Amino acid sequence: MKANESPALQGRVVEDEVQLTLLELCQASGAPRERIMTWVSEGMLEPVGDRPPDWRFTGVSLRRTRLACRLEQDLELNPPGVALALDLMDEIMALRAELRRSGFR
To answer: How far apart are CA 52 and CA 85, in angstroms?
Structure first.
C-alpha cells in the first residue's frame, strides 16, 4: 500500500444479525413485555414470527425499543406519539443518508 492510500475497511452490520426473543428484548431494553406488545401492535416493532413465543427481534428493534422508552419517559408520549416520532426520526436519517450519498454534508 502506498503512503497516501487509506486501508480498506471491512465490517458487518451486527444489528442485522442479532436475533432476540421477546424476553431477551425486554431484558436488554428494560421495557416491560406489555409495552413491547403494544409497540408491535402499533407497528413500531416488526418481529419475525407469528406469535409472541416465536417472535425474533433484530438489533434494529433493540435500538428502536430503547429509543421508544426514552421518548415515552422523557417526552411523556403515548404509543401513537412514540410511533410518529420514530417514523419522523427514520425519515430524517434517510434524508441525511441521501444527502451524504449526493455529496452534501
So the answer is: 25
